[in-house]
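Pinned message: reference record for 4Fe-4S ferredoxin-type domain-containing protein
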Amino acid sequence: MATYAEMKEMFDEIRADFRYDHELNGCLNCGICTATCPSAQFYDYSPREIVQLLWTENVEQIYDAMQEKIWACAQCMTCAARCPFKNSPGGLVMIMREVSIRHGMQSAKDVLRPFGRVMLKLITTGNQLSPDMIQPDHFPDWGPNIQKVEGDLRILRKAIPVRTLQTVETAWEVSLKTSVEMYTIWEMTGVLKSLETMDENLFDVIEDFIDEKREDYEDWLESQER
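Predicted structure (C-alpha cells):
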C-alpha cells in the first residue's frame, strides 16, 4: 500500500500533464458518459466516477481507481463526444494509466502482462494484432459482431487475393525499414523504457530482437551501396 505522500505525488503528476486541463472542465453529474459507455455495461467502471474523483482531488480514491478501474476503459471516447461539459474521461484515464506505468504499480503490471504476446507480435511482425488473436470471449464489449468476424475468419482471409492477407498469423506485411523506424520511435517516445519497467524479461527479449533487426537493416543498406 502506498503512503499518502506517494499517492499525492502520483496525483500531482496526473494534474501536471499538459492534457489534464483540456480533458477536465467540471461535472454536471448528469451521468450521460456512464450511460453510453460500453465498458460500463460489462465491468465495474464508471467514467463519471473518474471525473468526480479528479475534480474533487480525492487522492486516496484516485489511487484506488488506478488499481483496477482505469484498466476497464476501452478508449472509444464515446464519453468525450457526449459530455455537455466537454470532459474526456477516456483521456483522463489514459493519463492515469501512463502515471501508473511510470510508477511501476503492480496493478499496471498485472493488467499489461497478458499483452506481452501482443507486444511481441508487434515487434516481430510489425502488426499489433493478428486475426488469429481475436477471441470473442476476451472482448465482450465488442458485441455480437465479433462472433461473425471470428467464425469464418480463416476462409475469408484465404479468399482475399493479396498475398500478405492469406494468413491469420499476420495482418499485413511490414518492411524491414518500417520496422527499424518503428523501433526508433518507441525508443524516442519512452515506450521501451515503460516496457522495461513493466516486464524486464520481455524487454530483454525484445531488445535482442530489435538489435538483430537493425543489424539486418544495416547489412541491407550496405548491399544497396555496392
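Pinned by admin. Summary line: The first helix runs from residue 4 to 16.
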